[in-house]
Design goal:
mainly beta, four-stranded antiparallel beta sheet, 1 helix, globular
Amino acid sequence: MSTSPDPSKGYVWRLDPFDIYTARPDGSGLRRLTRFGVYTAEGVVSPNGRKVVFTSLKNGDLDIYIMNIDGSNLKQLTHQLGYDGGPWWSPDGKRIVYRANHPQTAADIATYKELLDQRSSGPNKMDLWIMNADGSDQRQITRLGAASFGPVVDAGWKENHLLVEHHHRSEAWQLRFVPDQS
């Protein structure tokens, strides 16, 4: 296993073995919620404070999971081969928006799996997807063909108009409103 990502593969980051914890705002009461021994990160607490949505390599692929705030009732929400990550709640807690890259060609699948074997990831083309909080009704909502990160979700959020951090190889990172392109 490589100790650092291979820059010849493009924008690649390590998938170190993290876990999910909770704590009080002052840092006390630290409690470990997961013990998977693999990359488990990108966690976000639901608006009502009862659930956590996160990304994990728990079952050998980068998928999105949900659990209660105490670590119980773990459920895998995504199952398609490829990177599913960066989940974020809608303000009402009924929907989850996330970024994804699902390799389609044999070459892209081989590259994705090779990077996973090296505990790295490097999807340079990620679009935004949305699903219900129970994992149903998953659908792609952007088709930008470039890296789309960090959808901004606030009280005025509309699933058909998100503010997205977007990058194409010939452009600098930029924030842009993106209409639903599904």
